[in-house]
Amino acid sequence: MDAGLLVLRAVMGLLVAGHGVQKVSFRLGGHGLAGGTEEFRHDGFRGGRLTAVVAGASQIGAGLFLAAGLLTPLAAMAAMGVMTVAGTVKWRHGLWVQNDGYEYPLVLVVVSGALALTGPGRWSLDQALGLPAWPWWVVLPAIAAGPVSGLLTRAVLHRPVTDGPVTGGPAADGAATPGGGPAQPRTPA
Q1: 3-state SS of 90-109?
Q2: Which of 63, 68, 98, 144 has the fewest Cβ atoms within 10 Å of its own Cβ atom?
Q3: CB neighbourhood size of 32 (10 A)
Q4: Cα four-point dihedral sign 65, 70, 75, 79
C-alpha cells in the first residue's frame, strides 16, 4: 500500500504543481505571468496578476507538498481549493474533459481528499519527520475547507464575462507569444 500511495502522491502532486508553474512562467508550456493573468481575466476573474500569482503559488506548493507527503491534509486542502475553482470554470461544459468539462479537476479534488483520508503512507516526509497520523478532527475539516474555499474564491473574484474584447492583456492588444503567434486565451485546469 505504501508504494501505491507514493506513486499516487508523486504523479498527482507533480501534475498539480505543473499547472501552477504554467500559470506563472513559460515552463511546461505556460505563457508566462502575463499569459496566466490573461487566462484568469478571460475566465471572468478579478485580481489580475495577484490572482495568477496566488493560484500558481497555491498549486505549486500544494502539489509539491502532496508529492512529498508533507503536511498532507493541509496540502490536500489547498489542492482541493484551487482545483475546485478550475472545476467551476469548466462546469458549463459538462463533465467530460473532451468537451472541456470538469472531469479532470474533479478527479484531482477527489484524489486529494482520498490522500488526506488515507494519509501519505510510510514513504513520506510526514513519516520521516515523525509526525503522527493526522486526527480525524483535522482531516475532515481540511477536506471540507478545500472545496468551500474554492467556491468562496469563485464567488468573491468572479465577474460576468462579456462578449467584447478583454482589455489590458496580451490577447487584447494582439501581442505575440514567445513562439511568435498571437496570444490565445486558455482555460485553467
Answers
A1: HHHHCCCHHHCCCHHHHHHH
A2: 98
A3: 19
A4: positive
pLDDT (mean) for 155-162 = 78
> What integer pLDDT is reported at residue 144 of this predicted model?
97
DSSP-H helix ranges across the chain: 2-24, 32-42, 48-68, 72-90, 103-118, 125-128, 136-157
Q: How far apart are CA 68 and CA 8, in angstroms?
A: 11
Contacts 24+ apart (CB under 8 A), 11-14: 12/63, 12/66, 12/67, 12/108, 12/111, 12/112, 12/115, 13/62, 13/63, 13/64, 13/65, 13/66, 13/67, 13/68, 13/75, 13/79, 14/63, 14/64, 14/67
Measuring CA to CA, how many Å separate 172 from each of 10, 56, 89?
37, 22, 20
